[in-house]
Amino acid sequence: MKRLRLLCALIGFTSLPVVADMASLSKEAFVSNLINQMTLEEKIGQLRLIAIDEKMTPEKIREEIAAGRIGGTYGSVSRYVNRPMQDAAQQSRLKIPMFFGWDVIHGHRTIFPIGLALASSWDIGAIELSGRIAAKEASADGIDMTFAPMIDIARDPRWGRTSEGFGEDTYLVSRIAKAMVQAYQGTSPNAPDSIMASAKHFALYGAVEGGRDYNSVDMGLARMYQDYLPPYRSAIEGGAGAMMVALNSINGVPAASNAWLMQDLLRKAWGFKGLVISDHNGINDLVQHGVAKNHREAARLAIRAGVAMSMNDFSYGPELKGLLESGAISQSNIDNAVREVLGAKYDMGLFEDPYRRIGVASEDPADNNAEYRLHRAQAREVARKTLVLLKNENGLLPLKKEGVIALIGPLAKSTVDIMGSWSASGVPAQSVTIYDGLKNAMNQGSLIYARGANLTEDLEVLKYLGESEIKNDPRPAAEMIDEAVKAAQQADVVIAVVGEPRSMSHEAASRTSLDLPGRQSELITALKATGKPLVLVLMNGRPLSIGKEQKLANAILETWYSGSEGGNAVADVLFGDYNPSGKLPITFPRSVGQIPNYYSHLNTGRPYIAGALRNYTSQYFDQSHGPLYPFGYGLSYTDFSLTDMALSSTTLSKTDNLVASVMVKNVGQRDGETVVQLYIRDVVGSVSRPVKELKNFQKIMLKAGEEKAVHFSINENDLKFFNAQLEHVAEPGEFRVQIGLDSQNVKEQSFELLSEQGSG
Ligand code: NOJ
């Protein structure tokens, strides 16, 4: 039978349905067999990923699909919209199924906290839960692939997309990258409730110069390998079926035309076997990058460099045939790309059943946004783990659910902003605002509200970010502040919900300032002047420079954009129904001028010395040194103490392990969780090594008064880095181990890594 099918394929006899071959052929043979039957036009069609937008009517799209000229679409999020497109594919000559992609970044119908917030939980289980639910909801809407996780290391918060990723740290982002991929893909990307992960943006998009979106990246190879590339590799180890190519250039060569990146590194060195997709219009952008003189050249560069599928395609469709005929590209350039697309469809189970995630019409939900389809309990559970308590003077928090609370601020009642950017198919009306959350929780006492300020009064900024996103109150600023002050005067405690509208923490939303926008700072000053206890609830997608406001506030809770159940989760923490346990996955600078300001920096030849004046050390003379809040920082309503660290040995051989242990005790009055963090410093290396690097962590729960031993096993692998020859090595010598509940306050011990011969 197998031979008969192959024979049929060879002689071009195609009436055997494609699906029938599945049982008897391996994936490779199946895909080759299919490729052998395809015309050039059909092959090119498979390389086109088309946006569902107003550029083509649904009829036109179906016509194109039926003619074999589209391989997949993105942007449609319902079974009943996707089904007719899949029907059209089933009417095409070879019945090659379509796949349907969408940006399911932090939830689908139920919106979970943004990436940066998820990372703040340091709770891999909770992060996985958010990804799994997103996959279930999205697959139930006929979606096969997500353009996520977004795993670009971000160390410059001016970059608006900092919000989408998981922060500044290589180890933490790499752990989350793998977890998210596995959560989306479940047991296998072919399961009906799985969606294939397309990790992005390959590579280094988070390192755009000056944090300006789409800007260039110039980076030495050692830093690239050491700090920026591991998360992508980790996503691949997690089984990511696809990878999206970044929009930036890398050392002068745009990612989309970068053969070193996509061939040498991704496919050859890392062995990636999945599908490589461009970003939206990323191929035609090569003209603007100045490496192609027209779209034809752009298509040539991209396909030769290894971009298999063109997102929002206006280059492969029109150009590949001409390029092949002129000899500018080879048949194998096209066939290799087609092989990847068909391979991904095979892995998604679409050849077995094109309707795997679309289901039958009779089972379509009457209302896609029906409440029963949401996972509110899980969204609330995850959201409260992502909140970071930054300050809590004299135990002001948690608040009592009584008395008069003045809730002030332009974000307190926003249903849109709390969802964060890239909120997939979330519906603002279904999100619980902070106002609603507090109301839901308070059974006695009263809540008075005043807006207090607008988020920006700059008309140019408003126009840029979109007036539909930011609804300004037309009243004069002074009147709004007055109203807020009056509300505060009547209250026992003031909660000011301040930050950025979500449109400021988004793609194409880079800022030159990290200050609170609009008149929010003025508002906080006025509220402070009332003498009432002041709680700041921050809602933002990047670290903000809140040095001044931090001094004024008695308590600060960082809530990022916490999703559909955000308001309830925030209320859980403010009222103490949940004890906060989040830790910052990114450093909070004192000012924008300190950027970049990440914890794992090099020591320099003249490191800062606290308290010493003008001593020619590395510092800014006009501002206190160091961050406002360090990486890994976050308080709890209880207190934890750490004993000195014990090392199982002061030497480590290359084949052995050593164990670093501390006792952690909950010395406060409440049960609570904390994150015990392990950092390592390589004291002397063949190249300068960072002052510390996160190597492991454990989130532990301790009952009031309880004490637990926390052990970290360390082996040679934890000590490896990329040397000047880009070899991944551990060099013998002294290492310092640090354990703490943030990156700054740590217990330290040293050990020596022995050389093979057994001596340092
Ligand atoms: C452009 C963004 O850079 C990318 O992250 C996203 O997946 C695509 N648009 C599709 O929405």
Provide key terms for this protein.
single chain, 760 residues, alpha/beta, Rossmann fold, Immunoglobulin-like, eight-stranded parallel beta sheet, six-stranded mixed beta sheet, 22 helices, 27 strands, 29% helix, globular, disordered N terminus, binds 1-deoxynojirimycin, EC 3.2.1.21
Itemize the secondary structure elements and their pairings:
Layout: H1 2-10, H2 27-37, H3 40-46, E1 48-51, H4 58-66, E2 72-74, H5 79-90, E3 99-102, H6 115-121, H7 124-139, E4 145-146, H8 170-185, E5 196-202, H9 221-228, H10 230-237, E6 242-245, E7 249-250, E8 253-254, H11 259-269, E9 275-277, H12 285-289, H13 295-305, E10 310-311, H14 316-325, H15 331-347, H16 376-385, E11 388-392, E12 404-408, H17 434-441, E13 446-450, H18 459-465, H19 477-489, E14 493-499, H20 520-528, E15 534-539, H21 547-552, E16 555-558, H22 566-574, E17 640-642, E18 646-647, E19 651-652, E20 657-666, E21 672-682, E22 693-702, E23 707-715, E24 721-722, E25 728-729, E26 733-740, E27 746-753
Parallel strand pairs: 1-2, 1-10, 2-3, 3-4, 4-5, 5-6, 6-9, 12-13, 12-14, 14-15, 15-16, 19-27
Antiparallel strand pairs: 7-8, 11-16, 17-20, 18-20, 20-23, 21-22, 21-26, 24-25, 26-27
Helix pairs in contact: 2-15, 3-14, 4-5, 7-8, 7-16, 8-10, 13-14, 16-22, 17-22, 19-20
Bound molecules: 1-deoxynojirimycin.
Domain Fibronectin type III-like: 674-743
InterPro entries: Cellulose_Degrad_GH3, Fn3-like, GH, Glyco_hydro_3_C, Glyco_hydro_3_C_sf, Glyco_hydro_3_N, Glyco_hydro_3_N_sf, Ig-like_fold
Protein name: beta-glucosidase
Characterization of this structure:
- The chain has 760 residues and is an alpha/beta fold.
- Among the domains are: 380-585, Rossmann fold, CATH 3.40.50.1700; 640-759, Immunoglobulin-like, CATH 2.60.40.
- Helices cover 29% and strands 17% of the residues.
- It contains 22 helices and 27 strands.
- Strands 9-6-5-4-3-2-1-10 form an eight-stranded parallel sheet. Strands 11-16-15-14-12-13 form a six-stranded mixed sheet, sandwiched between helices.
- Helix 8 (170-185) runs parallel beside helix 10 (230-237).
- It is globular, with a radius of gyration of 27 Å.
- The protein starts with a helix and ends in a 7-residue tail after the last strand.
- Bound molecules: 1-deoxynojirimycin.
- 1-deoxynojirimycin binds at residues 103, 147, 200, 279-280, 507.
